[in-house]
Amino acid sequence: MHTPSGTSLPVVPAAFAPVLPSRYGREPEPAPGAGVRVTSDTLPGLESVSPADQNSVWLHDALLGPHSADIVRYLSLARSTGGPVLDLGSGAGRLAVPFARHGFAVEAVDRDASALERLDGWARRIGPQVAGLVVTHRTDLTELRLAGSYRLALLAGAMVTAVPPARRPELLREVASHLQTGGALALDYTAHQLPGLVAEPQRTWAFQVPRFDGIDEWVVARQVFDLPSMSERITYYAARTGKLSTERVVLTTDKWIVDPERLAAELHSAGLHIEGRRRHRIDERTESVLLVCRTDD
Q1: How far from 253 is each of 36, 70, 112, 138, 276, CA to CA, in Å?
Q2: Are 274 and 292 in contact (CB under 8 A)?
Q3: pTM of the prediction?
Q4: What end-to-end distance do the CA atoms of the chain give, in Å?
Q5: DSSP state of 1
Q6: 62 and 43 in contact (C-beta within 8 Å)?
Q7: Which residues lie closer than 8 Å to 195 by C-beta, 6 or more apart?
Q8: DSSP state of 217
């Protein structure tokens, strides 16, 4: 839903209403014409966010929720490739734990120690059989050095957009060199039509975070695209209202706009060929793209 200007929010219950960015004292209000959208199924992504504290867990889970359908697609691929599986940018185990529950050995890699602790805790709660199939490794993807070999590697949830383009070829070569013969790398990303970004380089979203702990949380998310650097920043302004007080938190996500032709060339240079491509339209100028890449035998 759009509003006449970029400085007002849709009508929400007064107790839940978030404070606009200007009230935080550091950021300007959304630019006129940016508009405010309310959505429940296509929230701005969270590929490379500042580390979450315990109170931000609900927001992280809400932002990752729209990606949940990809678990079925990636599991189907794993059944055709077999394991072990390498989950890059695993977070709290959105994919790694379900994969282990289905009997796959998984190595989960993430830079956020708290996310990996949540992953380990989730696996242990399910049982020792699942926990025994998951190994976690804390590192930034730009510094990845692998020791094992894998039948399937995942860069799910648009994690490839969190890797600087200058460092991406090195990451792809490292992953490809540790795939077993006939192994696969599966990755997805959001593809933007550049004319749409030129026409609307700033976008503003408002949404309520599902919580079940007695806290009401609303978020205003500002999405700013910078075409000269092919980069994007999303700033989340969260207002969390409890019985006695309201807490205001700011989180940021920095990521990169993917050039499909450049990415295809980098995959080829790493010794991978694109075997399959699946597109899902998000709106008239944006789509989600899933690539399945195989090693060159």
Answers
A1: 19, 21, 14, 19, 29
A2: yes
A3: 0.81
A4: 49
A5: -
A6: yes
A7: 285
A8: E
Type and span of the H or E element at 145: none
Handedness of CA 239, 49, 59, 287 (dihedral sign): positive
pLDDT digits (tens, 9 = 90+) for 265-295: 999 999 999 999 988 887 777 888 899 999 8
Q: Which residue has the tokens 């993430």?
A: 110
Express each pLDDT in 112-137 by its tens digit: 888 899 899 999 999 999 999 999 99
Alpha carbon 30 to its chain's center? 23
Instruction: Evaluate the CA torsion angle 154, 163, 140, 209 in order and state its sign.
Output: negative
Structure tokens at 284: 């008239």
At residue 155, the 3 state secondary structure works out as: strand
**74 close to 53: Cβ distance less than 8 angstroms:** no
What is 227-241 written as a DSSP string?
Answer: TTTTEEEEEEEEEEE
Residue 155: both structure tokens together: 């860069």
Report the sign of the C-alpha dihedral through residues 29, 201, 257, 81, in that order.
positive
